[in-house]
Amino acid sequence: MNYSCFECEIKDKIAHIKMIRPDEFNSMNKAFWSELPHLIEDLSDNASARVIVLSGEGKHFCAGMDLANFTPSDSQPNAHSGMRSESAYRVTLDLQHTISCLEKARMPVISAIQGACIGGGVDMATATDLRYCTKDAFFCIQEINIGMAADVGTLQRIPRLVPEGIVRELAYTGRRFLPEEALKHGLVNQIFDTKEEMMAEVMNVAKEIASKGPLAIAGTKESLNYGRDHTTEEALNHIALWNNAMGIGDEMSAAFKAKAEKKDPEFEDMLPRRKYLDGEITS
User: Fold this and answer.
1) Bridge-partner residues for 8, per DSSP?
2) Which pLDDT does position 275 carry in this prediction?
3) DSSP-derived pairing of the beta strands 130-134 and 138-140
4) Phi and psi dihedrals of 111, rounded to 5?
5) pLDDT confidence of residue 72
6) Alpha helices in the chain (DSSP H)
7) Domain-located, residue 179
8) What mean pLDDT, rounded, does the chain reach?
9) 3-state class of 191 per DSSP?
10) 3-state SS assignment for residue 89
């Protein structure tokens, strides 16, 4: 598939996805919402990368949703209000899926943020595993400033990252959340003076992640996501089942063998998911 909003390069098991509409501040137009899940799910399914880096070209990471997406549709002018509301509800679910695909990917996703991260950009960043930013970055739950409650993921995810009182202030006021405050309260992992410095460190982190056993990384992400939404007892049971069901011994053996031989371990890649679905791999 050819993408109008993204470029993707895979090198050394790292998939670097760039948002490539800098003149529009990488705003999320209609193509964006269909292309992102297609791209992320393709990377997740074919297992060609072990970690994803998400960045934006130009001055800003992402200026949020293109307001053209809010233009009412007149395709069914005679439909009653209930039908229109039901259709709008389904569209919102589709938008939520676009963001949730980052969280559901088999591998970790790292966002590298410079300049504005507004509205849908915050939805996107909070769905990634790690967030790094430059000193000129700022975050804003913009939806309240245009008369709506954010409904694509920010209000559900950011309370897991930032103290609730701060979240409520940001969500109610729509003010800018600056890097020092974002670092202090846990929204970002680190701040950098320039985008170049940020990208160098992000790639170092991505390289370190890619060097680990991909099955162990997938299990860790799965367990962290599961534990966030379940009790400690349920989460402990889940990881016990996961580790035993997935047969983690192969990667452990590779790690121990490499350590004994004083060299870096080499791990097999995850199997492509689509080949199972298409019947290309059999047991």
Assistant:
1) 17
2) 57
3) unpaired
4) -105, 135
5) 57
6) 30-46, 81-104, 120-126, 154-157, 164-173, 179-184, 195-210, 214-228, 232-246, 249-260, 273-277
7) yes
8) 92
9) strand
10) helix
One domain, residues 11 and 140 = yes
- In the chain, the amino acid numbered 12 is D
Helices vs strands, H then E, count in the chain: 11, 9
State which amino acid sits at residue 139.
F
Q: Which two tokens stand for residue 129?
A: 């595993």
Task: Quote the tokens at residue 107.
Answer: 């591998």
- 48 and 125 housed in the same domain: yes
Sheet holding 138-140: strands in order across?
116-118, 138-140, 176-177
- The confidence score (pLDDT) of residue 282 equals 43
Residue 217 to residue 214: CA distance in whole angstroms: 5
**In what helix (H) or strand (E) does residue 117 lie, and over which residues does it extend?**
strand 116-118
CA atoms of 131 and 121, how far apart (whole Å): 12
Q: What is the pLDDT of residues 128-185, one digit of tens each?
A: 999 999 999 999 999 999 999 999 999 999 999 999 999 999 999 999 999 999 999 9
| Domain around 246 | 214-266
